[in-house]
């Protein structure tokens, strides 16, 4: 399958009191057409900033300071704001964790979804309305004609997320970026929304970049996974391999920390210490001080991403010289 | 695990909702007839989705929210009838840990001051303070130097350790934990859960562990109560509940939780519809509009909790 999105050496910096802070540091990954790629990591690892950088939705004090983002072989980083507006919502859409803060509280649902269509397509008002109602039905909203006239505060969290999804898919984008789309929802509603995303992906032939901290969601949704730690990619592989045979000590620790993995054991496995903030990044491997397998070299030099096979790469000195089966 | 430490009978909490002139007052029934027993050194998990009344239940036990009716019997006394002064003495034995440690601490106080507050409130002799402080810091796995820090200087995991330290510094018998690890990252979450288990063993604590995360509850709890719209729908030993959940809601809840095992056979039950609003709950069994097994009886008659296969379930169909 061809790649729809290729991120190469993406680096994003924010203005800090003591000079720029690098939050995303030379990220590389590819999303194939029709694939669900998971971007996984804990808070502060840079996964959300990565997604905002792709669409150039960063706050004023943040900027992309290096690297490229190719969407269908076109570099988005060099695009102007006006050109980006043509791409957002039309080619690449995004949904966010908290649907309440992303919806306009003083505009009825129907108008908000309609805006996306009016922005990108030249169609008459009645056609827009018809399309919006169809979209609401497609995302599983009951009484779509009535909900069209409702304000966001009248809807539940799950319904609001459905509205966000309707808005995101209004112009049949080829790519959807979903940033923690179910984190704010209850589990039974999460199951509904994940199910909806899965069926829409097939129906509309979309590729999805799914950003999450939840390995359970990854196991259910993703084909391949990129694991991030402290602003860097530490491991890339397919979901099955990641969960069955994680390579990077951080990934190993992360998977073992989930209660599900220590079934029947009294103590949960955990990773010592805590996630560093960007001003605490170590000089060598950024995970070295929490890593149970750290060696001397780890404290002095940042490991590169070692290619292990066509599918898997891992940023860890244990895999230097392609040593296999170390863990 | 034989002696019952705390018994909750028919706990109810109604919040006054809309009121209008000449109209009867309307109520939201947040907790509706909850029964619980907590034994010494036991952890009981209360799970459910948002709005099911699990946090309200927890707060009613400590009378942080006044229950509308029902009994909470602790050491032979019904604490719902106690005066303000008497309840203060009870709180020495029953403490609470909240979800967001940042929001539950005064940002202007140092950790030493935060941890001293319960000691001052309960008139612990000044000469004992220092020893209690350093011992409690050791228990929660923080260096004593951190006593001079402020909450904002600490990470989320460390702050929650302080939240736990504040709860255990008076050496209570029961700690009510309201979503204590929900705001934490996975790798830190497991550290805190391990800490809670160690403290339980060392200090002989009993826990009421309120959470929406079934994975965490399955790990830490001995018994689990599942709540839906203010009512307990299933109460069982943990192993029984997760092995073979009986109530259709419990089954859906367990199946909806994403598992990290890629090979696990997934029998996914996707519930239709949303959680109804507690201000306008469905008749009969409150779960019937979303249940796949609904019969006429479910719409008309509210099922009572009854003993089935060594546990309690509130469902007409099991």
UniProtKB/TrEMBL annotation, chain A:
It is found in: Cell membrane. One of its GO terms (molecular function) is ATP binding. InterPro entries: AAA+_ATPase, ABC_Ni/Peptide_Import, ABC_transporter-like_ATP-bd, ABC_transporter-like_CS, Oligopep_ABC_C, P-loop_NTPase. One of its GO terms (cellular component) is plasma membrane. It is a peripheral membrane protein. The keyword Nucleotide-binding applies. PANTHER family: DIPEPTIDE TRANSPORT ATP-BINDING PROTEIN DPPD, OLIGOPEPTIDE TRANSPORT ATP-BINDING PROTEIN APPD. This is ABC transporter ATP-binding protein. It comes from Neobacillus novalis.
Automatic annotation (TrEMBL), chain B:
It comes from Neobacillus novalis. Belongs to the ABC transporter superfamily. GO terms for biological process: peptide transport; transmembrane transport. Keywords: ATP-binding, Nucleotide-binding, Transport. SMART domains: AAA (SM00382). GO terms for molecular function: ATP binding; ATP hydrolysis activity. Residues 6-254 form the ABC transporter domain. This is Dipeptide ABC transporter ATP-binding protein.
């Amino acid at each position: 399958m061809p790649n729809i999105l290729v991120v190469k050496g993406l680096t994003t910096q924010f203005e800090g009191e003591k000079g720029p802070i690098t939050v995303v540091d030379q990220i590389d990954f590819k999303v194939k057409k029709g694939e669900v790629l998971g971007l996984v990591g804990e808070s502060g690892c840079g996964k959300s900033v990565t997604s905002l950088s792709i669409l150039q939705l960063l706050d004023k004090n943040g900027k992309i300071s290096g690297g490229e983002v190719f969407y269908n072989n076109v570099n988005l980083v060099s695009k102007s704001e006006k050109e980006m507006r043509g791409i957002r919502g039309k080619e690449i859409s995004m949904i966010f964790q908290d649907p309440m803060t992303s919806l306009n509280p003083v505009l009825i649902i129907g108008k908000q979804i309609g805006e996306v269509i009016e922005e990108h397509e030249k169609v008459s008002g009645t056609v827009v309305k018809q399309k919006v109602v169809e979209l609401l039905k497609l995302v599983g909203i009951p009484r779509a004609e009535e909900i069209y006239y409702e304000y966001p505060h009248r809807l539940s969290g799950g319904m609001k997320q459905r509205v966000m999804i309707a808005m995101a898919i209004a112009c049949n984008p080829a790519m959807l970026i979903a940033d923690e789309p179910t984190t704010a929802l209850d589990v039974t509603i999460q199951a509904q929304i994940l199910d909806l995303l899965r069926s829409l992906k097939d129906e509309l032939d979309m590729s999805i970049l799914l950003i999450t901290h939840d390995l359970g969601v990854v196991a259910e949704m993703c084909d391949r996974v990129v694991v991030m730690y402290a602003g860097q990619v530490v491991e890339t592989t397919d979901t099955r391999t990641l969960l069955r045979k994680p390579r990077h000590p951080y990934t190993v620790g992360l998977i073992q920390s989930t209660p599900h993995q220590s079934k029947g054991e009294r103590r949960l496995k955990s990773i010592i210490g805590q996630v560093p903030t960007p001003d605490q990044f170590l000089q060598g491997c950024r995970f070295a001080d929490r890593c149970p397998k750290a060696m001397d070299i780890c404290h002095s030099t940042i490991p590169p991403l070692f290619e292990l096979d066509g599918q898997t790469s891992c940023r860890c000195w244990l895999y230097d010289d392609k040593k296999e089966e170390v863990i | 695990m034989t002696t019952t430490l705390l018994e909750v009978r028919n706990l109810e909490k109604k919040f006054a909702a809309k009121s209008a002139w000449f109209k009867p007052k309307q109520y939201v029934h947040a907790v509706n007839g909850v029964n619980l027993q907590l034994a010494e050194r036991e952890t009981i998990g209360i799970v459910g989705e948002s709005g099911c009344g699990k946090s309200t239940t927890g707060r009613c036990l400590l009378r942080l929210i006044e229950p509308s009716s029902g009994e909470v019997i602790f050491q032979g006394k019904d604490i719902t009838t106690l005066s303000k002064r008497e309840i203060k003495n009870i709180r020495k034995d029953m403490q609470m840990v909240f979800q967001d440690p940042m929001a539950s601490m005064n940002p202007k106080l140092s950790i030493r001051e935060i941890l001293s507050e319960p000691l001052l409130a309960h008139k612990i002799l000044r000469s004992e303070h220092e020893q209690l402080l350093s011992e409690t810091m050791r228990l929660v796995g923080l260096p004593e130097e951190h006593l001079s820090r402020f909450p904002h200087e600490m990470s989320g995991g460390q702050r929650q350790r302080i939240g736990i330290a504040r709860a255990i510094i008076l050496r209570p018998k029961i700690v009510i934990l309201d979503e204590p690890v929900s705001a934490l990252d996975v790798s830190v979450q497991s550290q805190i859960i391990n800490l809670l288990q160690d403290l339980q063993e060392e200090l002989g604590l009993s826990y009421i562990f309120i959470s929406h995360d079934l994975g965490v509850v399955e790990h830490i709890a001995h018994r689990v109560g599942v709540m839906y719209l203010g009512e307990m729908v299933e109460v069982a030993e943990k192993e029984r509940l997760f092995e073979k959940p009986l109530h259709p809601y419990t089954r859906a809840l367990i199946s909806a939780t994403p598992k990290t095992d890629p090979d696990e056979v997934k029998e996914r039950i996707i519930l239709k519809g949303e959680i109804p609003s507690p201000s306008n709950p469905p008749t009969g069994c409150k779960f019937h509009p979303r249940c796949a097994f609904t019969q006429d009886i479910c719409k008309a008659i509210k099922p009572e909790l009854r003993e089935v296969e060594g546990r309690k379930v509130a469902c007409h169909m099991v």
